[in-house]
Each structure stands twice: as structure tokens, then as C-alpha cells.
């Protein structure tokens, strides 16, 4: 379990607005909400950004149906897809932005999945790998052991506020062939120099 399923705990719109400004999604971004509930965060992000590709993953069937209805009512079916799946078995390789409102244990379980390195790249030296920025907003809890780029509080009641954390990760997406080429050229240059000496 990544978050409670029985009762739906939803993100308030003030937090969705803050998430939208922290993430500044572009049309080329791919956004995921892991455990999307009724899809309110995705709908907000779609309405406040040019992003064309948003996906919600929701394990609860009736909630996923409700999310699809809400997306339809907002006329955003062409931009938002709702998957009725267990988020622990989803491929996150294409996403560039993730929103998470999960319990601390859920964040601990999901982190290695959203940052996973494709198995064929595991044996490449790190310097030869191409990385892509992954922007993540978490609400209420943050990742243990990670320092957020920003930590904000959204006022809930007078004197108290809900924490919102913004992180930037660099996930491995492939081989950096330019670097490989550079290393090969350097090797050739070195061996020629040695022959000449
Ligand atoms: C705290 S709610 C957040 C809803 C929404 N993201 C929001 O911020 O308004 C978490 C949601 O995660 C869903 N969930 C829990 N475990 C899940 C799993 N393994 N895969 C997909 N969804 C899950 C729950 O059913 C619930 O709807």
C-alpha cells in the first residue's frame, strides 16, 4: 500500500497551484500522479500548463472510474489518461514530472521505481550515461535522506501549514554517445602519440 485506499485524502487546490508553479510543466513534459484519486491534481496541472501528456495511476477501480468521469467533464480526455493499476508495477521511464501524495512508506517504495536504471545500462560507467531531469513534488511527506530544492508550506488554518517538497533528480535514460565518441577519439589520439614518441 502506498497510501490509504478506504478514505480518499485529496490535495487542496492551493497545493495544486503551488505544485504547478514549482513544476512549470512544458508541452513536452510527461506528468504522472501516482495514486491519482479523483484526478483533481492532474486536471489542475492540465488547466494551468501547456502539458499535453498527463497520466494518473489509481489502484481502486471505482475511484479510477470517478477520475475518468472528472477528466471527461473537464474535456481533457485527449491530454489525461487514467490507468487502473497498481503503481508498483508501472514503467516510469518516460515521465519527466511526478506528483506524489503518499504515506512515507509509499514514498520509500516508489522512489527506486521512478529512478530505476534500465537493466542494459547497469554495467556502463556512470560518466558515459545520459541523464534527464525528473521534477518531483511531494505533499505532506518528503523523501527520507533527500534534500529538497525547495520546501514550502501552504496555509491550512491560522498558524499551521501543510508541507510541500520540490525535488530535482537526474535519472539515467540511455548511453551518452557523444561522450563515448569523445573517449574513443581520446584513446586513438593517445595511442598515436605514444607510437610517434
Ligand atoms: C492520498 S490519495 C491522493 C490522491 C490524489 N493524488 C490527490 O493528491 O488528490 C492516494 C491515492 O493512492 C491510491 N493508491 C494507494 N496505493 C496505490 C497503489 N499501489 N497503486 C495505485 N494507487 C494507489 C489510493 O487509492 C488513493 O486514491
From TrEMBL:
One of its GO terms (biological process) is regulation of mitochondrial ATP synthesis coupled proton transport. Its EC number is 2.1.1.33. GO terms for cellular component: mitochondrion. SUPFAM superfamilies: S-adenosyl-L-methionine-dependent methyltransferases (SSF53335). Keywords: Methyltransferase, S-adenosyl-L-methionine, Transferase, tRNA processing. It is an enzyme of class 2 (transferase). It comes from the Eukaryota. Pfam families: Methyltransf_4 (PF02390). It catalyses: guanosine(46) in tRNA + S-adenosyl-L-methionine = N(7)-methylguanosine(46) in tRNA + S-adenosyl-L-homocysteine. One of its GO terms (molecular function) is tRNA (guanine(46)-N7)-methyltransferase activity. PANTHER family: METHYLTRANSFERASE DOMAIN-CONTAINING PROTEIN. Belongs to the ANT/ATPSC lysine N-methyltransferase family. This is tRNA (guanine(46)-N(7))-methyltransferase. It comes from Triparma verrucosa.
Amino acid at each position: 500500500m502506498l497510501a490509504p485506499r478506504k478514505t480518499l485524502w485529496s490535495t487542496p487546490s492551493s497545493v495544486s497551484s503551488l505544485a504547478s508553479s514549482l513544476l512549470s510543466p512544458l508541452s513536452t513534459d510527461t506528468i504522472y500522479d501516482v495514486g491519482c484519486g479523483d484526478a483533481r491534481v492532474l486536471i489542475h496541472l492540465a488547466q494551468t500548463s501547456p502539458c499535453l501528456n498527463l497520466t494518473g495511476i489509481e489502484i481502486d477501480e471505482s475511484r479510477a472510474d470517478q477520475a475518468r468521469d472528472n477528466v471527461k467533464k473537464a474535456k481533457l480526455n485527449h491530454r489525461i489518461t487514467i490507468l487502473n493499476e497498481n503503481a508498483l508495477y508501472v514503467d516510469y521511464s518516460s515521465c519527466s514530472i511526478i506528483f506524489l501524495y503518499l504515506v512515507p512508506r509509499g514514498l520509500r517504495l516508489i522512489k527506486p521505481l521512478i529512478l530505476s536504471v534500465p537493466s542494459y545500462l547497469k554495467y556502463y560507467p556512470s560518466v558515459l550515461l545520459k541523464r534527464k531531469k525528473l521534477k518531483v513534488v511531494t505533499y505532506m511527506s518528503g523523501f527520507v535522506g533527500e534534500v529538497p530544492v525547495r520546501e514550502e508550506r501552504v496555509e491550512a488554518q491560522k498558524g499551521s501549514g501543510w508541507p510541500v517538497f520540490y525535488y530535482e533528480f537526474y535519472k539515467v535514460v540511455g548511453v551518452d554517445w557523444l561522450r563515448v565518441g569523445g573517449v574513443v577519439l581520446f584513446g586513438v589520439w593517445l595511442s598515436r602519440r605514444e607510437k610517434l614518441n
